Amino acid sequence: MTNSGDGIPSRIPVADDTTLGKFLGVFLDGDPEDFTVRIRCNGTSVEAHDDYVLQHDDRVSVAPRKVEGE
Fold this sequence. Notes:
The chain has about 70 residues and is of the alpha+beta class. The chain has one helix and three strands.
């Protein structure tokens, strides 16, 4: 995950039984409702919800729903 805006992904190890909600709570700065969250698992998309338990090799992408101008 990167917050620099350069789009370069990184691997972040998570503990067993970590939910998407817990993961996002650590890394998101703001309300999760303001972001589009996608999870790729074995090449297919799965529904992104707070109770989803992250699995080995899941890929999580997060993007803001609105980008404000300066």
